[in-house]
Specification:
single chain, alpha/beta, Rossmann fold, 3 domains, 6-stranded parallel β-sheet, 19 strands, globular, binds adenosine-5'-diphosphate, binds ligand TZD, binds magnesium ion
Length: 575
């Protein structure tokens, strides 16, 4: 790294100058960015100071991975790229995990990392934190750009923004060699190199023939089903989506993060009749949802024996036919596609007996679940603890729920209703642990609303130190740790002379951890205590950990995806 300031081109004496730092910030501001998430050090420290001095917000994290998760969630919630700034090599690599996760989840995010000078990296001469970041980032994101001249910073930021938000959203890497930050040029010339991009995420209109094909298929359906994914939630066309559902009378079921896009209490919600509708439907309308592992790749017993035809709405043309044949692809943005379909389907209503059968199954399953939620047990289990949380959150429908863990995730998704769009952020497409604290930070910052994070004790550990970031910024986040003392369960027998590889220290006091880091902390052992503590923490707006003691024997291996777990058919061999 070189700290010597250079000048891009000779400038006459007395001419006002700008530099890479200022141009980068001007460009970000012109692209509508206000919040940056990151972790500072050589060579980007000044980015944070100068960004704050301009009246913007810099959220400083304890590990770049969490700053990156925050940026990606900011991107998901706002439809603008979330920005994460890191130092070189190790900081960049920490951030890269989050960038890859953003790309996998179709969240727009830009990772900006300082880097060593090309001439040293390219000859592998061993610079401070040297790494060929530009190339390493490539397979993990939509595009990887490097900017070498101050006059190119504006265009680089615009290319990064357009790439992140247009088409299928995703991650972009922007590499800024250290020296460029301090390289100067004439301020007037610098100003001319910046512009505000027109329509960075243009609507993508589906072809009329594709709309007609899809509408014809739907009109002929006896048992149609709408399946919403997080792409539909991301699209922010909530009113159009609701009209589509209500005009057609088709039952719908949401993927995890699409819960609440149309309220879980809507009479057409079939979430609790998921198995039935997946198996028995004849035409499935996928709206911003991929037929990946979360939907059993569109085949097998999950989907039953009823022959199935798919309509798939997606902005990414090559998502179509990724797993099974798609009878009616509808390539375009969700809003354009939904509204085109609505126009073509005017007057159409799904058969009422199908909807009423689905509704019966849905309410029957919910009634059975409700009984479990209010059943007292000597030690709290996932059902009665989450039942208590559900009842509190019912009175705070605009709370954003962040959720990670295995049993802590799967049961919360099932038990806790969502009433409004984009109020659930979870482990996403990869099922990644550690998104908790970064996501909670961004959810609080971007929405200005209270956040409740329900985390398994293992999941929390991945980003636990970031809790200090939450208390430092005084964010209204309640973290409920489902403390069962381990991964999946806390009662696994330990082998001789060792502690089971699935267990944590049972003496761990997450409530005291919170107090040590400047927050509020309370330990609860009953659903009543949990309700009271949660209600109080949401009302107070204070950053709080509720350490909820859960029966160590309550969980199951791998939560609800135990079917994906691999076990030895031979079993344990002792040395
Ligand atoms: P889920 O996990 O909820 O099933 P996925 O992440 O698998 O959702 O799928 C989201 C899909 O939504 C992706 O295929 C992506 O291309 C698509 N998508 C994202 N934004 C839009 C949009 N505005 N319009 C149409 N499709 C979109
Ligand atoms: N590492 C990462 C980054 N993501 C993962 N998903 C895992 C490891 C594996 N894993 C799961 O899939 S769930 C889980 C791990 C470690 C933790 C489950 O334990 P928990 O939740 O305490 O968070 P429950 O309530 O005890 O099941
Ligand atoms: Mg656990």
């Amino acid at each position: 790294m070189s700290s010597v300031a250079t000048q891009a081109a000779p400038v006459a004496e007395g001419v006002e100058l700008t530099d890479g730092f200022n141009l980068l910030m001007d460009a970000l501001e012109m692209n509508g960015i206000k919040n940056i998430y990151g972790l500072l050090g050589i060579p980007v420290t000044e980015v944070g100071r100068m960004w704050q001095a301009r009246g913007n917000n810099f959220y400083s994290f304890r590990n770049e991975q969490n700053a990156g998760y925050a940026a990606s969630v900011a991107g998901y919630l706002t439809k603008k790229p979330g920005i994460c700034v890191t130092v070189s090599a190790p900081g960049f690599l920490n951030g890269l995990t989050a960038l890859a996760n953003a790309t996998t989840n179709c969240f727009p995010m830009i990772l900006i990392s300082g880097s060593s000078e090309r001439e040293i990296v390219d000859l592998m001469q061993g610079d401070y934190e040297e790494m060929d970041q530009l190339n390493i980032a490539r397979p993990f994101c939509k595009a990887s750009f490097r900017v070498n001249r101050p006059e190119d910073i504006g265009v680089a930021v615009i290319r990064a923004v357009r790439t992140a938000v247009s088409g299928r959203p995703g991650g972009v890497y922007l590499d800024i060699p250290a020296r460029l930050f301090s390289t100067t040029m004439a301020a007037l010339e610098g100003e001319k190199s910046l512009w505000v991009p027109v329509d960075p995420a243009p609507a993508q209109i589906p072809a009329p023939s594709a709309v007609k094909r899809a509408a014809d298929l739907i009109k002929g359906a006896k048992k149609p089903l709408i399946l919403f994914g997080k792409g539909a939630a991301y699209a922010q066309c909530d009113a159009d989506i609701l009209s589509f559902v209500e005009e057609t009378g088709i039952p719908f079921t949401p993927m995890s993060m699409a819960k609440g896009l149309v309220s879980d209490l809507h009479p057409q919600c079939a979430a609790a009749a998921r198995s039935l509708v997946l198996q028995e439907s004849d035409v499935v309308i996928l709206v911003g949802a991929r037929l990946n592992w979360l939907l059993a790749h569109g085949k097998g017993k999950t989907w039953g024996s009823e022959p199935k035809k798919f309509v798939q709405i997606d902005i990414q043309a090559n998502e179509i036919d990724s797993n099974v044949p798609i009878a009616a692809p509808l390539v375009g943005d969700v809003q354009s596609c939904i509204n085109a379909l609505r126009a073509e389907l005017k007057g159409f209503k799904a058969p009422a007996e199908w909807l009423s059968g689905v509704a019966d199954k849905h309410s029957g399953t919910r009634a059975k679940l409700a009984a479990k939620l209010s059943t007292a047990t000597p030690v709290m289990n996932y059902h009665n603890s989450l039942g208590a949380i559900r009842d509190v959150l019912k009175n705070h429908p605009d709370t954003i729920l962040v959720n990670e863990g295995a049993n802590a995730l799967d049961n919360a998704r099932m038990v806790i209703d969502q009433y409004l769009p984009r109020k659930r952020v979870d482990t996403g497409t990869w099922g990644v642990m550690g998104i908790g604290m970064g996501s909670a930070a961004a959810a609080a910052v971007e929405s200005g609303k209270p956040v409740v994070a329900i985390c398994g004790d293992s999941a929390f550990g991945f980003s636990g130190m970031e809790y200090e970031t939450l208390t430092r910024y005084n964010l209204p986040v309640t973290v409920i740790i489902m403390n069962n003392g381990g991964i999946y369960r806390g009662d696994e027998a330990s082998p001789d002379h060792q502690i089971s590889c699935m267990l944590f220290n049972p003496k761990t006091r997450y409530d005291q951890f919170s107090i040590a880091l400047g927050g509020e902390g309370v330990r609860v052992t009953t659903p009543e205590e949990l309700s009271k503590a949660l209600e109080a923490s949401i009302k107070s707006g204070k950053t709080t950990i509720i350490d909820a003691i859960i029966d160590p024997g309550a969980g199951v291996e791998s939560g609800r995806i135990g079917n994906l777990n691999i076990v030895s058919t031979i079993g344990k061999k002792k040395k």
